[in-house]
Amino acid sequence: MEKPREWLREKSIAKKVLKESNVVLEVVDARIPLLTRNSVVESLAKERNKSLIVVLNKSDLVPKEFLEQAKGVIEKDFPVVMFSAHKNIGVNQLLEKIKEYAKEKQIVKVGVLGYPNVGKSSIINALKKKKVATTSPKPGMTVGEKLIKLDENIYLIDTPGIITLEYQEDLALKGSYIPDKLPYPADVAIKLIEKIIQNKKEALEDAYKVKIPDDPLQALETIGKKLNYKVSGGEVDYDRTAKKILWDWIKGHIKAYWL
Ligand SMILES: Nc1nc2c(ncn2[C@@H]2O[C@H](COP(=O)(O)OP(=O)(O)OP(=O)(O)O)[C@@H](O)[C@H]2O)c(=O)[nH]1
User: Fold this and answer.
1) Key word GTP-binding present in the record (predicted)?
2) CA-CA to 147 of 20 to 30 Å: which in 130, 137, 188, 241?
C-alpha cells in the first residue's frame, strides 16, 4: 500500500529536532502507549545522548491502574510523566522535570515529538498555559516547525507528527491518519475492532449501545445496522460505518486501551 508521501520527510525532521533540542518529549497516547512509542525517535535520542521523557498523554481516557502498568513498562527505558492536556494533569510535574535539565544549561530547547494526533500541540498549550499551538482531531494538522518560549531559558519546538514511514493502515490504528483518506477503511476498522474485542469489548458495546459479536466483521455489520448506515438495496454501508468507528476512536469516544 502507498505510503503517505507528505510524511516521507519525517525521519529527517526527527533528526533535525533531536539535533536542535537538549530535552525530548516523546508524546504517546495513554490508550495505546506501546503502539505509539516510536523506536526511531528513541534510538536517535539514545545515540545522541539526549534526555528523553515519555509523556503518557490522554491519561484521562484510561483507568489509573492501567496507567501505572504502562508507566512501569516504559520506565525500564525512560522517565515517564502521566499527563492529560485536557484535564491539566501532570503539568507541574513535567515542568519540574524539564527544569531539572534547564539548571545545567543557559538555554534549553525542548523537542516535542510523537505520532500525529497524540496531543503534542495540546501539551504545548497546557505547558504554556495559553493557546499557542493549533490543535485538531484531524491527524497531521501541525505543519512546519514553531519555536515557543516557555520561560526565560526554556523553549519548546512544535513539530508535525513524527512517523516512521509506516503504512496508512498502521497509522490509522494509532489514530494518526485521516480515516476519510483510507482506500479501504473497512479493513482498518476490522483490525481495530479485533483489537478492541480482545482487550475491552464493552467499550464498543457502550459506544454503540448494542451487543457486539466476537467476530470482527460481524461486529462491523452489527454496528452499521445499529447506526442505520445502509447502501441502496438495504445492505450495510461498511465503508461509512468503518470511517465512523475510526473517527470515534480518534475522538476518544470508544473507551478501549491496551498494552
Ligand atoms: N481526551 C483527551 N484528548 C486529548 C488530549 N490531548 C489532546 N487531545 C485531543 O487529541 C487531538 C489531537 O491533539 P493535538 O494537540 O492537535 O495533537 P498533535 O499531536 O499536535 O497532532 P498533529 O498536529 O496531527 O501532529 C485533539 O482532538 C485534542 O483535543 C488529552 O489529554 N485528553
Assistant:
1) yes
2) 137
Ligand 1, atom 30, residue with closest C-alpha: 58
Write down the ipTM of this complex: 0.97
Instruction: Indicate the CATH number of 178-250 among 2.40.50.140, 1.10.238.10, 1.10.1580.10, 3.40.1390.10.
Output: 1.10.1580.10
Q: Nearest to residue 170, comparing CAs of 222, 213, 237, 116?
A: 116
Q: For the sheet containing 80-82, what is the strand order?
A: 80-82, 51-57, 23-29, 108-113, 154-158, 146-151
Query: What are 61-85's pLDDT values in tens digits?
Result: 999 999 999 999 999 999 999 999 9
Residue of the CA atom closest to atom 12 of ligand 1: 117
- The closest-lying atom of ligand 1 relative to the alpha carbon of residue 161 is 25
